[in-house]
Amino acid sequence: MADRYANFANSGPGRAVVKRLGLPDPPRLRRYRPGDPLTAGPVLLGAAPGGRLGEPVGKLLERAGVPVVATGAEGVRHGALIFDATGITDSTRLRALFDFFHPYAKSLHVCGRVIVLGTPPEAAASPKEATAQRSLEGLTRSIGKEFGRGVTAQLVYVAPGGEQSVESTLRFLLSGRSAYVSGQVIRIGAGAASEPADWDRPLDGKLALVTGAARGIGAAIAAVLARDGAEVIALDVPGAGDALADVANRARGRALQLDLTTADAPERLAGYLAAGPHGGVDIVVHNAGITRDRTIARMDESRWDAVIGVNLTAPERVNDVLLDRGLIKPGGRIVGVASIAGIAGNRGQTNYATSKAGVIGLVQATAPLLAGRDITINAVAPGFIETAMTAKMPFGLREAGRRLNSMSQGGLPVDVAETIAWFASPGSATITGNVVRVCGQSLLGA
Amino acid sequence: MADRYANFANSGPGRAVVKRLGLPDPPRLRRYRPGDPLTAGPVLLGAAPGGRLGEPVGKLLERAGVPVVATGAEGVRHGALIFDATGITDSTRLRALFDFFHPYAKSLHVCGRVIVLGTPPEAAASPKEATAQRSLEGLTRSIGKEFGRGVTAQLVYVAPGGEQSVESTLRFLLSGRSAYVSGQVIRIGAGAASEPADWDRPLDGKLALVTGAARGIGAAIAAVLARDGAEVIALDVPGAGDALADVANRARGRALQLDLTTADAPERLAGYLAAGPHGGVDIVVHNAGITRDRTIARMDESRWDAVIGVNLTAPERVNDVLLDRGLIKPGGRIVGVASIAGIAGNRGQTNYATSKAGVIGLVQATAPLLAGRDITINAVAPGFIETAMTAKMPFGLREAGRRLNSMSQGGLPVDVAETIAWFASPGSATITGNVVRVCGQSLLGA
């Protein structure tokens, strides 16, 4: 799991070598600790004329104690550049983006943040507006690739009527929680989200179920949800015994040994949750997943069936039973774990990519149906994450995965976990049907 | 424009060196010439039980003179593997894909074809079906990366009611016309498309306008549309004089010198078309585009304005005037040219990527509005195409662009042109709002 090159590049002598030879320069990413300020410096907030988000965003940043400025001054380093582009109603007005970003492109702190706020093209009032708003995606993804130094860049589409529900997302994106999330497009729907009493413990009083929790990313999810205040049920297969117990103990939660691919597992899980003190569950994270890599020519049917069964069919069956029984409560959150392989496909992973593309389908198909029940469903799609699994990859493949992204390094399990915690927040009630990559803006895609 | 490495790799001694050293192995791609058979061998056609496309597809292939078999035999090489997956209504039935592809994965000719037919997730009858159908994307993209040897793989979603309108797409995908198109998802809508009298001249009797026609990709578009039977108006800026006249002559068409970014250009173009013998135009290809690369920190406003103006605002203005005046006739086709940079973003191209993402927005926002007028609008998104522009790129960047795709080589201008000709076909009447990459399944994406 050690990225020795990144450690070297961040050492005293290493910095000099990296700079002189023009080698990949992986910055030390700023990651979240409770109590940290949201940004390393003031936020420069700009807007195209006629925008509807500049004012509410300015106010919420002030309430959050973040210094906000409207123009930069010589030598001042900004923690973030936020631009409200909702006023851009046709392509001739895109120039406002250049006017804002050109003079301040070099003004960001290391690990600074770029956030462009727009109107979802599908909610625009005219084709001209939809076109201009869609073009924002090209801008933010290019900025993510240009700025380097750990700077992330995102496009956040806020539906008309969603202006008061952006705080959980801005807090996520500004903070070190989103260290390895860049080049993403996030959609916030209309409606009001509730505000947690304590933004450092937004999940206080919530019960969360995490599958595949014994190791790697699953263990990190359990830890982060617990840190954010949730009571955690850490679920894994019976064979994971000791490791699972450790995770549950560290999260001060409960361990549940269950193989979700067995015929009666969803019913048994439902019984367990119904009998618990909460009489249900608030947050369900379908993290359990396996790989059984072979080209399809060399694959046997058991490898195909196992991967589809664990990664896709099991989450479907669990959702069905828990939703049918009303065990996921209003305000509930379902989070799936997809993968870049499910987006771009991958050699040797027809089974895995099929299952993970299916997870995206599950999220997109289910989100509209759950909206009326006040339950959201979203997915993360991890890229190269440093785990025991990636540590076993051949050197060349591993180095390519680590370096071919805007951060020049692999992500950590905690980065995936933080993104899931953002979806899980009460403040994210109007975020549903999203698939957000946790990939450092990997070059790979579709 | 010469890919010397590919020429070497396809030479006698080169083949041996490439094989022994495990170097990238760019196959010589099969490209279309009128009269060519659609495939190099029989099509193996399979289906999951309950599918609705196997039968109509089998019949149309027979009518087209393509041999079709239902099971493979020892030693038989197939020209294509086509699988009707519309019968897959939940994830437990995805196994049918493995059962079809596993035994025949090695049975394809060089430059063979894989086509998976599905139901658009948004038109599925249940969330389970939508999920399973969405998962097909992971499969086809993985197969595209696995099979190599010039084999392409696509997913074609056919809306219920569109079963009789798949022929233009199957002909495009099976033939050498789609040599450099792989890993794509294509959506065919409901409704009937008309059948050209002669599939080798599907554009007979049509008038096509091609902007930026003097060079490179634009010149190839003019030539291909003319070859397919269209009368071509080749448009470019006044400075392109001689080159433009050459293109128009070779296409036996007309040259039109006009700078579309001037205030009165759309009106002048409208006047020209209205006064012509057709009293309008059938096919409009917005190919004119420029790059003015700089990071946004180093860019000046003229570079920003020029790129947005030529690549995005000009097509919008031309569409507005031609559509307002009814000069794009029923059965009309509008085709935009986007770019991988507009999908994934690119360092040094904030202006270009913004404009090209906008072209995608234009297509998606306009398609529903034109459906009632029997006009389609789609876009191609080229990847690395061998042109005078890419020939000037630094060696490392150029080689990366050429090799980092499933074909291990750059595409040719004709590949973009063929894709546009497919959109333009009368047989493609139910294809609208699509953005299809012509990139050899480049690894780059979002």
List keywords for this structure.
6-stranded parallel sheet, 446 residues, alpha/beta, Rossmann fold, Sc_DH/Rdtase_CS (chains A, B), 3-oxoacyl-[acyl-carrier protein] reductase (chains A, B), oxidoreductase activity, acting on the CH-OH group of donors, NAD or NADP as acceptor (chains A, B), KR_dom (chains A, B), homodimer, 7-stranded parallel sheet, SDR_fam (chains A, B)
Can you describe what's shown?
- Chain A is of the alpha/beta class.
- Chain A folds into 2 domains: 20-188, NAD(P)-binding Rossmann-like Domain (Rossmann fold, 3-Layer(aba) Sandwich), CATH 3.40.50; 207-438, NAD(P)-binding Rossmann-like Domain (Rossmann fold), CATH 3.40.50.
- Helices cover 39% and strands 18% of the residues of chain A.
- Chain A contains 15 helices and 13 strands.
- Chain A has helices spanning 4-9, 12-21, 54-63, 95-104, 127-147, 167-174, 216-227, 241-250, 265-275, 301-324, 340-344, 350-371, 388-391, 395-403, 413-424, and strands spanning 43-47, 68-69, 78-84, 108-118, 152-158, 184-188, 207-211, 231-236, 254-257, 281-286, 328-337, 376-382, 435-438.
- The first copy, chain A, has a 7-stranded parallel β-sheet with strand order 9-8-7-10-11-12-13, with helices on both faces.
- In chain A, helix 7 (216-227) crosses helix 15 (413-424), helix 9 (265-275) packs parallel to helix 10 and helix 10 (301-324) packs parallel to helix 12 (350-371).
- The two termini of chain A are 28 Å apart.
- In chain A, 60% of the residues are buried.
- Chains A and B meet through helix 4, helix 5, helix 10, helix 11 and helix 12 of A and helix 4, helix 5, helix 10, helix 11 and helix 12 of B.
